[in-house]
Amino acid sequence: MSNCILIISDKFERSAEYVRSVGERYPIEFVDVSEVPSSENIDPLLLVVDIDLADQKTIQDLRDAFTQVHRTKNKIFLTESSQRSAIVQARALGAKSILLPPHDDDELENCIAGLLRQMTRKKLEHRSVKESAAFQSIASLNDSIFQSIQNAESLPKKKVQMCCKIITSCLQETNIHSWLETVKEHHSYTYRHSMNVTGLAVAFAMHYGMRKADINRIATGALMHDIGKARIPLSILDKPGPLTPEEVVQVRQHPVYSGIILSEDRQFDPEVIDIAVHHHECLDGTGYPDGLKGDEISDLVRIITIVDIFSGLIDQRSYKEALPKEQAYQIMLGMKNKLDMDLLHAFETITLDKPGLATNAFPLQVA
Question: Both 35 and 96 in a single domain?
């Protein structure tokens, strides 16, 4: 029960209704107030408490539960009444936020998002101003993208463009190793992956002297490359273990969803859509969704494919440990028929500090 929103409740049906939309954005776990397991592995991001604050036995059970999750300081209380006694009791139990009835799932979602942003800002206090701004910009963008898709609205292209500028400016002053270390501070794998892929892609483009317009395209493509995952249930994306064959099929639809979302939005270049749709294609034709091979796969897509795989290998998940960068790179060297080896060797000079080719060594064909 780590990196989740832990719902402590004395009535699951009621709580499930309150957190309906929250479960679409964040991994949530329910536990009865009297049955919080005794385990040092309980380390949720924050707690949502939905209990009867007039029942002394339930309150004592909650105090006992808090001894198991003492590291979690952010607690949101959903009170059953607006009476002063309920508010006082919630505060005495350490409530960071108190939501009064009638409860609204959007209000709870906004409260959770606000607390998580505060936590992220605090973790970034030791980083440079530009790094902190870049990561908060990506997090805010991802929130906006999700809301736009959820509400069937136009994607926030101006926010995407501003985010690209902030990231490029940041990486002109810092190195990719610092960037990757900072990424680890974020609680969400989805956000970490977006930050890793974007940072690595922009660092590659800048190191090898791509034109400004092409750096912007690759940054935009990296930011949007997994946008289709907004249509995949979070229970599958954040599943703490291997996916079933049916779930694998569903996840493999995300590039198709990306293409639909971006094409219908009509604001983004064909190269950006190409990246989003085809970054899981392989040179030998074994990739998806279209089974492209060889020259059918553009250079920008080949770059994003490399950084996407590398990011997945070096990031930690609930079911696997993060690999050292050197080990991740060695695994990718074994994918000779699938990846562009010239680009992969060039990628090594950026990620592993190896001597490499000079700037402008790659006459990449963009458009």
Answer: yes
Question: What CATH number is attached to the domain comprising 24?
Answer: 3.40.50.2300
Residue 240 has pLDDT above 80, yes or no: no
Is residue 268 situated within a structural domain? yes
Q: Is residue 363 part of a domain?
A: no
Q: Which range, 2-11, 57-66, 200-209, 238-247, is most confident?
A: 200-209
Number of domains into which the chain is organized: 2
d(CA 175, CA 345): 19
Helices (H), the chain: 12-18, 56-68, 84-92, 105-123, 129-150, 157-173, 176-183, 189-207, 212-224, 234-237, 245-251, 254-265, 270-278, 299-314, 325-333, 341-351
Contact 223, 138 (CB under 8 A): yes
Give the domain range for residue 172.
Answer: 126-351
* Upstream peptide bond of 289 is cis (omega within 30 degrees of 0): yes
Helix (H, G, I), strand (E, B) or coil at 46: strand
User: Which CATH number fits the domain that encloses residue 203?
Assistant: 1.10.3210.10
Cis amide bond preceding 102, omega within 30: yes
Rounded Cα gap, residues 127 and 123, in angstroms: 8
In this structure, the strands spanning 28-32 and 5-9 are parallel
Tokens of 63: 């105090």
Contact 191, 138 (CB under 8 A): yes
State pLDDT tens for residues 37-82: 555 566 788 899 998 898 888 888 888 878 766 566 789 999 988 8
pLDDT band at 239 (very low <50, low <70, confident <90, very high): confident
CA pair distance 70, 364, nearest whole angstrom: 53
Distance CA 227, CA 257 (A): 8
Last residue of a domain, one of 66, 89, 112: 112
Q: How far apart are CA 183 and CA 178, in angstroms?
A: 9
| pTM for the whole structure | 0.81
Q: Residue 362 domain-assigned?
A: no
- The predicted-structure confidence for 258-310, as pLDDT tens digits, reads as follows 999 999 999 999 999 999 999 999 999 999 999 999 999 999 999 999 999 99
187 and 92 within one domain: no
